[in-house]
Amino acid sequence: MPNALLSIQVIPKTPGGEDVIPYVDRAIEVIQDSGVKYQVNPLETTMEGELDELLEIVKKMNEALVAFGSNGVISQIKISYNPKGVSMDKLIEKYRP
What we know:
Shape: elongated
Number of strands: 4
Distance between the termini: 24 Å
CATH architecture: 2-Layer Sandwich
Number of domains: 1
Order of helices and strands: EHEEHEH
Strand content: 25-35%
Largest sheet: 4 strands, antiparallel
Structural class: alpha+beta
Strand order of the largest sheet: 2-3-1-4
């Protein structure tokens, strides 16, 4: 079982005040390409996996946004870590219809 959940919101600094959505889409593509389980929400995306792997994805997201044209990125991150295991499904199952 994965040992971490990591939720991230990226706030890219865009050239000339461009719309951030294409940058956010690029960040989500990095997550998709990683193969980890994830869920996109309105204000953040949550990933499930091993902590080291998730932190590496965060690094790749930031690098990808700069390569995409961002002048810099703020990443707001929340981490739930439990060596015995943690999952999105378990945490939210009581809220599902």
